[in-house]
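Weekly puzzle thread! Below is a chain. First person to post its structure in token form gets bragging rights.
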Amino acid sequence: MIDEQTKLKTGTTTLGLMAKDAVVLAADRKATMGYLIATKDIKKIAQLDEHIAMTIAGSVGDTQVIERHLKAEFRLYRLQEGKRIPVKAGSTLLANILYGRKYYPFLVQLLVGGYDDAPHLYSLALDGSMIEEKEYFSTGSGSPMVFGVLEDGYKKDMALEDAKRLAVRAVYAATQRDIASGGRGIDLVIIDKKGVHYTSDSEVEAILGKK
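Winning reply:
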């Protein structure tokens, strides 16, 4: 059996926030194994369908299994129903998967963002609980720093550009204070009525004022 000190985990900072007509997801890129930095460039935002993405915090192996499962189920739904799965239905499926394993749980905390008739953001814990977030949420060891920035800067119906700047600033603040967060850059994903969009590293750096 793999000891907790040698299991690959993400210390992690992830966040999701609601903008006007979009959902913004952001995450750092460091993965740790105990006190060892296992990688500085892991992706913690997984696209599950053309309109849904998920942030990852917890055991890497567990989150990879969940990602593969959901992608397969969403494809099956599209084939059977002839349309994309609603964001709430996809999140509920994930909640049911987590609840079914709560006595031998997946060690994860997840955010699901998506757009069907409107933007949606759900937070899910390892016990299968699911909450629709109307403003924002953060997971991982860097979340206390993120919440401080979001509490100060978030406004309802934020313009997308303002929401992007706030998300990047919040994750960056966590990487400066949380030893388990960091890595080579910040991932920033926008989900709107046109689908899931990954922001380039150069644009994120420009938001941070490095260029």
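Puzzle host: Confirmed. Bonus trivia for everyone else. The CA atoms of residues 5 and 34 lie 5 Å apart.
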